[in-house]
Amino acid sequence: MIFKETSNKKLPTIILLHGGGLSFWSLQSIVEQLQSEFHVVTPIIDGHGEDGDEEFISIQNSAGKLIDYIDTNYNGKVFAISGLSIGAQITIEVLSQRADITQYAILESALVYPIKGTAIMTVPTYKLFYGLVKRRWFSKLQAKSLCVPADMFEQYYQDSLKISKQSLINITLSNGNYNLKSSITNTKSKILIIVGENEIGIMRKSAQRLREAIKDSELYIAPAMKHGEMSLVYPKKYAELVKLFFGKCS
To answer: Pairing relation of β-strands 39-44 and 2-5?
Structure first.
């Protein structure tokens, strides 16, 4: 896991975790909106982009690395942690393991129900079609499904060339098999849950489950938006929503 960060470490620290198949570059517009008020850290999750040589093992493994980083660099607690998709699952895992590791957390498009048959379908499918990931036309279809803006496509495509077959399989298995732990109810963090109104049913169901499991959490349903669209396509709105949440809870 590689950690990018803005320069002013005297400001409150926010950690932003990207989604699967993306990297820190997908968060740069949000960083620009936040960096005058916060010290922003954008980790590159194992197996992605510049960290493509480091095999992605699991959500739990990534959460452990993030906890170690926070313990080493911030005395065990930061102002906020935010994650999209698998980044949100990693955030949830961190919160489940350490109840007081952050004052705030933002969970966008987090899947917390295991998808039946993930292992049976994923491994043979990704072994068979791994070569498609390297094809530009296929990458364009994937980017569109992930709501990656057109001006980010080239970076997305170049990073897709770096991901290993095993990392891709592990990411998909870990994402599809993730189940919410009962220990999430112990978190002392103030939580904002974001889900797109036009996301598939299991994603909206996951958001409701998080809302019910985490006491006093807040659920925001992004009108007419798909998976990850809030932060990827509307970073200014995302930053405004997050700062409004901080203000309401302070």
So the answer is: antiparallel
Instruction: Please identify which residue in the block is written with the tokens 């899947």.
Output: 111
pLDDT at 120 over 90: no
pTM for the complete prediction?
0.93
Q: Which tokens belong to 127?
A: 């072994």
| CB-CB contact of 42 with 16 (8 Å) | yes
CATH number of the domain to which 18 belongs = 3.40.50.1820
Is the separation of the CB atoms in 9 and 75 below 8 Å? no
Overall number of domains in the chain: 1
Check residue 85 and give left, alpha or beta (phi > 0: left; psi -120 to 50: alpha). Answer: left
How far is the first Cα of the chain from the last one, in angstroms, to the nearest whole number? 31
Residue 78 and residue 15 in contact, taking contact as beta carbons nearer than 8 Å = yes
Closest alpha carbon to 201 in 115, 84, 123: 115
State the residue range of the domain holding 209: 2-249
Q: How far is CA 149 from CA 4, 15, 154, 242, in A?
A: 21, 22, 10, 21
The DSSP element (H or E) to which 42 belongs, if any, is strand 39-44
Q: What is the DSSP letter of 11?
A: S
| DSSP string for 163-196 | --HHHHHHHHHHHHH----GGGGG--SEEEEEEE
Q: Please give the angle made by the CA atoms of 144, 44 and 231, to the nearest 5 degrees.
A: 45
Mind listing the pLDDT tens digit for each residue in 127-143? 666 677 778 888 888 88
The answer to whether the beta carbons of residues 140 and 117 sit under 8 Å apart is: no
